[in-house]
Design brief:
Layout lengths: L1 H51 L10 E6 L14 E8 L6 E7 L1 E10 L2 E8 L7 E7 L11 E7 L15 H4 E5 L3 E6 L4 E3 L11 E4 L2 E5 L4 E5 L2 E2 L6 E4 L2 E6 L6 E8 L12 E8 L2 E3 L15 E3 L20
Parallel strand pairs: 8-18
Antiparallel strand pairs: 1-2, 2-5, 3-6, 4-5, 6-7, 9-16, 10-11, 12-15, 12-17, 13-16, 14-15, 17-18, 19-20
């Protein structure tokens, strides 16, 4: 009995030990679970605090409030014309702004006319090419939050250049004028030459932005101004007028050529256009009669000068010359 009692007691102790071990494992598992819940709670609380905390706001980006004159204005080209253009800014001072990537233009004499206005003398190339463009940028070495930012792109398409505007837009029957031999009045009239936007095409109406109203006429001997023409100072036989003038065509019998070119009165000292020709052809009388006379012929040959109706009042006598070619 004593042995059995000892064995029972030992088994009971072993069972108690196992129960204690199981209880310890359960306590450890419960502790780990509590730590996980606490960590999740901390993370959620942190996220809540972050979401409730106001974000640091970025300063507003710089903008261009105005450009004067507007980029669509009709500007004058080089070599003697400078166009003062002012840019007014918001959210940035004029000292922090620079012009970059100029194309077909140059900028000189930059001036900060106020804390928000930057002005420069713009010069546009006097040739047919791509439009003139420039960009505005916050200086890289500026302390401004948006330093290095390009915040303005500007195009200047309307430059009154005549250097390559050499198309004389006259109707075909206006380039050659038929005039009688006698002194007569001739009306020279043609369509106005039009300015073409830089990079545009002369045959595209959308690329035309203005007309040329002033022209220079070079008159040859035998042509005198009648109306619509004013002598050009210092230029012999040269007159200025519009695209609809009158001249008097006098003797002699030869054909004549009048030269015309566009002038840029809008822009001081701007290059003039190329000369274009207007031809004046004279209508000569015709001679009716045999084309030839054979040697030995004795019959009468009759020749007659046939005047044009417009020549009767100035051709009254003729000189006949008979050449004997053997």
């Amino acid at each position: 009995n004593i042995k059995a009692h000892i064995t029972h007691h030992t088994a009971h102790s072993t069972q108690h030990t196992a129960h204690s071990t199981q209880h310890t494992a359960h306590s450890t598992q419960h502790t780990a679970h509590n730590k996980t819940c606490l960590l999740i709670a901390i993370l959620l609380f942190s996220a809540l605090l972050i979401s409730l905390h106001p974000k640091a706001q970025e300063p507003p980006k710089p903008t261009v409030k105005s450009v004067s004159p507007d980029p669509s204005t009709h500007f004058c080209p080089l070599p003697f014309n400078f166009n003062q253009i002012s840019f007014e800014f918001e959210n940035v001072t004029s000292s922090e702004v620079e012009f970059v990537n100029p194309t077909n233009l140059s900028i000189a004499n930059l001036a900060q006319t106020s804390a928000s206005v930057l002005r420069g003398d713009f010069s546009f190339s006097d040739q047919w090419q791509a439009p003139a463009t420039v960009q505005l940028r916050i200086k890289q070495n500026s302390s401004h939050y948006w330093k290095g930012l390009v915040f303005g792109n500007y195009t200047f398409p309307n430059v009154r250049s005549l250097l390559t505007r050499n198309i004389f837009d006259a109707a075909p029957n206006s380039k050659t004028i038929i005039a009688p031999i006698c002194p007569t009045t001739v009306n020279i009239k043609f369509d106005k030459i039009k300015y073409v936007r830089l990079g545009g095409k002369a045959d595209n109406n959308n690329d035309l932005f203005s007309e040329v109203s002033s022209y220079e006429y070079l008159l040859p001997a035998g042509v005198t101004p009648l109306s619509g023409l004013t002598p050009a100072p210092g230029l012999p036989n040269t007159y200025t007028g519009n695209n609809d003038v009158f001249v008097t065509v006098t003797h002699p019998f030869n054909n004549l050529t009048i030269q015309v070119r566009a002038t840029n009165t809008f822009c001081s000292q701007a290059v003039k256009g190329n000369f274009n020709n207007i031809f004046i052809q004279r209508q000569l009388p015709t001679l009716n009669g045999p084309n030839s006379i054979r040697c030995g012929e004795t019959d009468t040959k009759t020749f007659q000068v046939v005047n044009l109706p417009t020549s009767n009042n100035c051709i009254t006598t003729y000189t006949w010359q008979i050449a004997n070619k053997g």
